[in-house]
Design brief:
Helix content: 25-40%
CATH class: Alpha Beta
Number of strands: 8
Radius of gyration: 24 Å
Largest sheet: 4 strands, antiparallel
Structural class: alpha+beta
Oligomer: single chain
Distance between the termini: 67 Å
Strand content: 25-35%
Order of helices and strands: HHEEEEEEEE
Number of helices: 2
Number of domains: 1
Length: 148
C-alpha cells in the first residue's frame, strides 16, 4: 500500500534543483554593483555637503566637508565646524570599490556660499564603468550629482 501524503525523493531533488537555478540567476542582481554604489555614494556625500552648508548658515560659522585621509585614496569623510569636532554620525566610510577624487576639503561659509578657488568644484566617484560627479557651486554652495 502506498502512502498518499508524502513527497518522493525525485520531487524533492527536482524542487531543490529549481531553487538552486533560480538563486544562481537572481543572486548577481541582488548584490550591489560598483556602478550603483558609485551613484549612491555620490548622492549620500551630496546630502552631507548640503548638511554642512545648512549648519554653516544656521550656526553662523564655517563648516567643512572633509575627505580622509589627507592625500588619496580617500577612505572616509566628515562634516565639522572649522576648528571643531565632528558632527554626530561622522566620520562615514566610503565603499572600498568606489574611487573618490577631488579636493580634500570643501568649506561652507555662514552666507551659504562655498569657499572655493573656482566657480565650482567637482568630486568624482568611480565604480566599475560608472562615474558620478558631485558639483558644488561657489556662489551658492549648492551641491548636485550628475548624472541624477
Amino acid at each position: 500500500m502506498r502512502a498518499t501524503g508524502g513527497v518522493t525523493v525525485l520531487e524533492a531533488v527536482a524542487t531543490l534543483a529549481l531553487l538552486a537555478f533560480l538563486l544562481a540567476v537572481a543572486l548577481p542582481n541582488l548584490l550591489p554593483s560598483p556602478e550603483l554604489e558609485a551613484r549612491v555614494t555620490a548622492r549620500e556625500v551630496a546630502a552631507d555637503a548640503s548638511l554642512a552648508r545648512q549648519l554653516a548658515v544656521s550656526r553662523g560659522t564655517t563648516y567643512l566637508l572633509e575627505f580622509r585621509p589627507p592625500g588619496r585614496p580617500y577612505r572616509s569623510y566628515t562634516v565639522r565646524a572649522d576648528g571643531g569636532p565632528e558632527e554626530p554620525g561622522f566620520p562615514k566610510d566610503l565603499p572600498a570599490n568606489v574611487q573618490v577624487t577631488g579636493p580634500e576639503v570643501i568649506p561652507f561659509l555662514p552666507s551659504g556660499a562655498a569657499k572655493l578657488d573656482s566657480p565650482q568644484v567637482e568630486v568624482i566617484f568611480t565604480g566599475g564603468a560608472a562615474v558620478a560627479t558631485l558639483r558644488v557651486l561657489q556662489a551658492t554652495g549648492y551641491a548636485r550629482v550628475d548624472p541624477p
